[in-house]
UniProtKB/TrEMBL annotation:
It comes from Cettia cetti. SUPFAM superfamilies: NTF2-like. Residues 52-191 form the Tim44-like domain. Belongs to the mitochondrion-specific ribosomal protein mL45 family. Component of the mitochondrial large ribosomal subunit (mt-LSU). Within the mitochondrial ribosomes, required to direct the nascent polypeptide toward the tunnel exit and position the exit at a distance from the membrane surface. This is Large ribosomal subunit protein mL45.
Length: 203
C-alpha cells in the first residue's frame, strides 16, 4: 500500500464539537489536499463522479465489489470460487483472505451500512518505471456484519450468528491505470494502532 492512510483516533466515536474532534477535522483537511492532487494528477481524469466521497467507481453505490469479495473469500468447499475471488482481489490480498481457512466453516453476512461508504484517501504512483501507473483509494466503511467461524467438527471457534457487530474498516482498492479495461480490485485493509483487539478464539 503506497502512503497508507492514517485513520484518526476515535473515528466514529468522537464528536466534531470536542477538542479532539476539531484536531481530527484539521488532519482530515491536510489528507484531503494530498488526495485531490493525486486525483487531478491522472488517477481519475475525466471522471468527476469519482471524487467527493462517492463509492460508485469501485463497484456500485453500495459497495458491491467489497461485499462480493467478502462472500467469496469466506466460503469453503463447494461454495469457494477461486477464479472469481482472483478477479475481485489483488495478488497481495488473496493470501490474506484464504490463509487459515482450510477445514473451517465460515459464515459471514453483511447486515446494513451504518454510514455511507466514503473515499478518504487517493494515491497515484508509478512502479518500476514512470509509465507503469497504479491508482489506490482507501474507502472508509462503517457497517453491521455477522461472522461465525466453526472448526472441522462444527464447534464454534469465533463470533456468532445471532448477534451482529458494528465494524469500522478502511479498505484499500487498487487499479492498474495503464490498462483502459482494468478494474478496481480489493488490495488490503488498514488496521489502525488504536483499534480494539479481536475477541479470543473459543477453545
Amino acid at each position: 500500500i503506497m502512503d497508507p492512510y492514517v485513520p484518526p483516533e476515535g473515528d466514529a466515536r468522537l464528536s466534531s464539537l470536542s477538542k479532539d474532534g476539531v484536531k481530527q477535522q484539521m488532519q482530515k483537511l491536510r489528507q484531503t489536499a494530498a488526495s485531490q492532487l493525486a486525483y487531478k494528477g491522472g488517477i481519475c481524469e475525466g471522471k468527476p463522479e469519482i471524487w467527493g466521497g462517492k463509492w460508485r467507481f469501485v463497484g456500485g453505490k453500495d459497495g458491491n465489489l467489497w461485499r462480493e469479495a467478502g462472500m467469496c473469500g469466506r466460503k469453503r468447499g463447494s461454495g469457494f470460487n477461486k477464479q472469481k475471488l482472483h478477479s475481485l482481489v489483488t495478488e497481495r490480498c488473496y493470501p490474506d483472505m484464504v490463509r487459515g481457512n482450510r477445514y473451517k466453516t465460515i459464515r459471514w453476512r453483511f447486515v446494513e451500512s451504518l454510514e455511507p461508504p466514503r473515499v478518504v484517501h487517493v494515491r497515484c504512483d508509478s512502479i518500476m518505471n514512470r509509465g507503469n501507473l497504479y491508482g489506490q483509494v482507501t474507502v472508509r466503511m462503517h457497517s453491521r456484519q455477522i461472522l461465525a467461524i466453526y472448526d472441522r467438527f462444527g464447534r464454534l471457534m469465533y463470533g456468532g450468528e445471532e448477534i451482529p457487530k458494528d465494524v469500522l474498516e478502511y479498505v484499500v482498492f487498487e487499479r492498474y491505470l495503464v490498462n483502459p479495461y482494468g478494474t478496481w480490485r480489493m488490495h488490503g485493509k488498514i488496521i489502525p494502532e488504536w483499534a480494539p483487539p479481536k475477541d479470543p478464539i473459543i477453545k
